[in-house]
Amino acid sequence: MIKTTVYEALMDEGTELYLESREAVLDILKEELAGNPYRLLEV
After folding, report:
1. Running DSSP on this structure, what letter comes out for residue 7?
2. What is the mean pLDDT of residues 36-41?
3. DSSP-derived secondary structure letter, 19
4. Of 4, 11, 24, 42, whose CB is crowded by the most CB atoms within 10 A?
5. For residue 35, what are the CA distances in angstroms to 13, 30, 31, 39?
6. First-to-last CA distance in the chain?
7. What does each C-alpha distance from 29 to 7, 21 come to in angstroms?
8. pLDDT tens track for 17-35
9. What contacts 24+ positions apart, CB below 8 Å, involve 27-32?
């Protein structure tokens, strides 16, 4: 299992990332895996 910033944000209720659509979370994950983890901060 790969632990990513997106995964950690999904587990943290304070970020409310779990409220985003599946597609939005997948897009953010793709950005992170492409080397741009800062996209998460824009949510």
Report:
1. H
2. 65
3. G
4. 4
5. 24, 9, 7, 10
6. 24
7. 8, 12
8. 999 999 999 998 998 889 8
9. 29/4, 32/4, 32/5, 32/6
Can you tell me which residue has the tokens 């741009």? 36
Q: Which long-range contacts (CB under 8 A, 24 or more apart) does 22-27 make?
A: none
Three-point CA angle 43, 1, 22, nearest 5°: 35
**Which tokens belong to 25?**
């979370």
Q: From CA 5, how far away is CA 24, in angstroms rounded? A: 15
Torsion sign, CA atoms 9, 10, 11, 15: positive
Task: Name the pTM for this structure.
Answer: 0.73
Average pLDDT, the chain: 84
